[in-house]
Each structure stands twice: as C-alpha cells, then as structure tokens.
Specification:
Layout lengths: L1 E2 L3 H8 L4 H27 L9 E5 L10 E5 L8 H21 L11 E5 L8 E3 L4 E3 L14 H14 L8 H23 L9 E2 L14 E2 L8 E2 L4 E2 L19 H4 L5 H14 L6 H11 L7 H16 L4 H12 L9 H12 L9 H26 L1
Parallel strand pairs: 2-4, 4-6
Antiparallel strand pairs: 1-5, 2-3, 5-6, 7-8, 9-10
Family: Belongs to the peptidase M4 family.
Function: Extracellular zinc metalloprotease.
Main location: secreted
Length: 394
C-alpha cells in the first residue's frame, strides 16, 4: 500500500509530548499496517473494471470499513454539499484528464479503470493512500494535518502509484522503491502545474503544501527543487532528511520501520533530476520532460535502479527528440547534477553530438574537424605555458 505520509514523519509524531498527537499517530500507523495486508489480498483478487475512468466518491462516515461507505457522487452527478467529496471528485478527474490528454493513457491501468474515492476515512486519520483499487483520504487531525483531499499533487501522486503498478511495477524497496515514490512526486507536481497553467520556472515544486495546518512550520512534505528543505521542526523529527545527490544517499534497512530502505527519503535524488530536466528544457514540464519520464517508466522493470532509469531517460530523449538535442542535453546535465553519469556518455561526447545536431547532421563527424582544431589549439597553448615555466625555473 502506498501512502503519502512517510513512516519517519508518523514515527516522529509518536515522540510528541502531546497525548492527542501520539494517539492519532498510533491509530494511523496501526491502520496502515492492517491495510497493507488487506491490499495484498485485494490485489491478488482484483479484476479490472473498464469504465473510461468514471468516478465514484463515497463517504466512510469516519469508520474504517470501506464496504460500509455510502456513495455520495458519481460521474454524472452535480457537486454535493460536502467539500471533501467535491475535492476528491475534481482531483481524480484532473489526474485522469491529464493522463488522457497529455499522455494518451486511458485511466490508471490504461484500459479505462474506474476511479473510486473514499473520504472521511476513520477518526482524524493522518494519511491518504492508493491500495491498488481505490483512493482513500483521511481528514487529518486538524492540528498538524488538514483534509488530505485539499492537495491536488497528493491525489495525483497516489493515483500515479497505480500507473506505476500497471507499467514498470517498480518493487517498493531500496532504489526501485525510491524511484517508485519519485515517479509519483514527478507526476503529482506535473499534474498540478498543468492544472494551474504554470511553467517549470513558475512552479513551487512542493509536494503536499496544503496538507499542513497553518500553525505548523513546514512548507510541504517534500521539495523537488531543493530536497532536504521542505521542513525543519522537532515536531516532524527535525530537518527534512531527503538527499539531493548520490553522495548523500541514505542507507537504511529494508524494513517497514525504516521505510523499506528509505523509499520516501532517497526519492529526493531522482526528484531533483526531473526538476533540473524541466527547468533545463524550459517551458512546461508536461511537455518533453513528462513525456520522456513516462516513456522511460513504461520501458523500465520491477528492479530498475537509479542508474538504469537515468540511462533510459537519456536514450528516450534521443529517440524522441534527436541525438544531441537540447532535450537530451538537459537530461544528461540533470543526472550529472545529482552525481549520476549516463553510461557511455561524457561531456565531450555530448558537445560533439550537440554540434552535429545543430549543423543538421545526424553524426558527430560533421563537427569533428573543428573540435580537433579546438583541442589542438588548447594543447599548443598549454605546451607554451609549460615551456615558459621551465625557463623561469632554469
């Protein structure tokens, strides 16, 4: 089961001096553990129900038994008096429309899967999750977290776990799990930017800024632009632990208590890479950047790690936009920016490819003579400098 709140935040709340905060954290963690087991059983028995992504939103009435929830709004129904129902309905619809209009994907499974949402789950439940069949929202405790239906990027994040499940099926632990989380953050942010009509430079690149109550000193759950800066408060366990490059990769045990090897933590590295790609290319993130990432997701497998995904994005950028194209150069530079070097590529080879592309020639041979002359000139100048130093020492 994929939840928006990582275990390290919920665990930090267990250490609070406030009894009510501790109580809600325990209830959330207990429910999450129970639901994880249910999710495995449900996934085994699940049968796709093609419906063109039609939406149904149900009200749990603050209990935790989905079968007892009542349907409040269907695809063709008008808005209700419940803001949570309407927000969930709109969020599911916006995400569905993005995947269809931008990526030509028919709902979560690509086959028109029905989108079921459940609101008011449990009492003060501090989380939102996708369980392979539906989207479930807690109301938050009202002190730290607010209604989880209020954040479009959270909704798109969770639904994207479903997309990943039906494409690469990235294993939810260690690097493949962190990549799984990152893909959800990427498309969570991209869907929000698409809805708001923002360019990559205008976007905040924050995940879940709306889920914190006004009194909490936290910008968001995560920052894709600057991983490790989303919050810094003892209430949430101190400083945001996300790294922004491979030399800061956090090695954790592959257990539930340690976030399956830090999947919500190390996702900061590929998150930063996508941010760098989007701003490096410029314009709208839902253009070339999102297409490259989506095609790379479809070309990945369950055990894909960061290096393999980086190599795939580089290859896809070349296939889609041309070898040495600005898009491929941006992908190369972005992964370099998080200390991952594309296999078989180098800055020099990228300059040669870029020069060939700019000359309208598909090979580096068109610009090789000028590059050789340039290097020869640099060697000549260096030789002259060395000879001068030798004479000075003599």
């Amino acid at each position: 089961m994929n939840c928006i709140l990582p275990p390290h935040i919920l665990n930090a709340l267990l250490d609070s001096d406030d009894q009510e905060i501790r109580r809600t954290a325990v209830a959330t963690l207990t429910s999450t553990s129970r639901l994880r087991g249910e999710r495995i059983a449900r996934a085994i028995a699940a049968v796709a129900a093609p419906a063109g992504g039609r939406r149904t939103i149900s009200d749990c009435h603050h209990i935790k038994v989905l079968s007892q929830a009542t349907v409040e709004r269907g695809e063709d129904d008008p808005p209700t008096a419940d803001p949570s129902v309407n927000a969930a309905f709109d969020g599911l619809g916006t995400t569905r429309d993005f995947y269809w209009e931008i990526l030509q994907r028919n709902s979560i499974d690509g086959k028109g899967m029905r989108l079921n949402g459940y609101v008011h789950y449990g009492q003060k439940f501090n989380n939102a999750f996708w369980d392979s069949r539906e989207m479930v929202f807690g109301d938050g405790d009202g002190r730290i977290f607010s209604d989880f239906t209020g954040s479009l990027d959270v909704i798109a994040h969770e639904l994207t776990h479903g997309v990943t499940e039906h494409t690469a099926g990235l294993d939810y632990h260690n690097q493949s799990g962190a990549l799984n989380e990152s893909i959800s953050d990427v498309f969570g942010s991209v869907v929000k930017q698409w809805k708001l009509g923002q360019t990559a430079d205008q976007a905040d690149w924050l995940i879940g800024p709306e889920i914190f109550t006004p009194g909490i000193e936290a910008d968001a759950l995560r920052s894709m632009k600057a991983p490790g800066t989303a919050y810094d408060t003892p209430l949430l366990g101190g400083k945001d632990p996300q790294p922004d490059r491979m030399s800061k990769f956090v090695h954790l045990p592959d257990t539930d208590e340690d976030d399956n090897g830090g999947v919500h933590i190390n996702s900061g590295i590929p998150n930063k890479a996508f941010y760098l790609v989007a701003t490096g290319i410029g314009g709208n993130s839902w253009g070339a950047p999102a297409i490259i990432w989506y095609e790379s997701l479809k070309a990945s497998s369950a055990d894909t790690v960061f290096q393999e995904f980086a190599d795939t994005t580089f290859a896809k950028a070349g296939q889609l936009y041309g070898t040495g194209s600005p898009e491929q150069q941006a992908v190369f530079a972005a992964w370099q920016g998080v200390e991952i070097t594309i296999t078989g590529a180098s800055p020099l080879s990228m300059r040669l490819s870029a020069g060939a592309a700019s000359n309208g020639n598909g090979t580096a041979a068109a610009v090789l003579p000028s590059r050789v002359d340039e290097l020869a000139g640099q060697i000549k100048a260096l030789t002259k400098e060395v000879n001068g130093l030798r004479k000075a020492r003599a």
